[in-house]
Amino acid sequence: MEGFFLRTLPTIPFNVKEIFVQIMPWLALINGILGLASVIPAYQNSFARSYGMTSSVYLDVIGNIIESILMLLAFSPLRINRRKGWNYLYFSVLVAVIFNVLSALLNMPWGTGGLIFALIFAAVELWILFQIRERYY
Description:
The protein is mostly helical.
């Protein structure tokens, strides 16, 4: 993957990379907190209580919890430019892709649009992550 995102696609200017490196820990922290907070309404939803949650909702909740925990774990290492934090973000993107693919397969044909959006968003996230990877040791 590294070759594709670093050699094939255009590079981000150095000053923009520095901005990403500075704000990445805070983005991870905010996304982790909001991700965990978004799980609560899934259980409080009156429709879910009345009719039960579907398997794709369970997958979304589980994926969201795992992704959010990985982002929260990434916060401290990212603040001190450790590769461990970058790895947590990388795995959170992979977890999101896996759970989005599974959720889309359970919701076929209605999940196709969400899957396409998720794959495009993951590609952009991975492109940015691989562009700033050199700043983490």
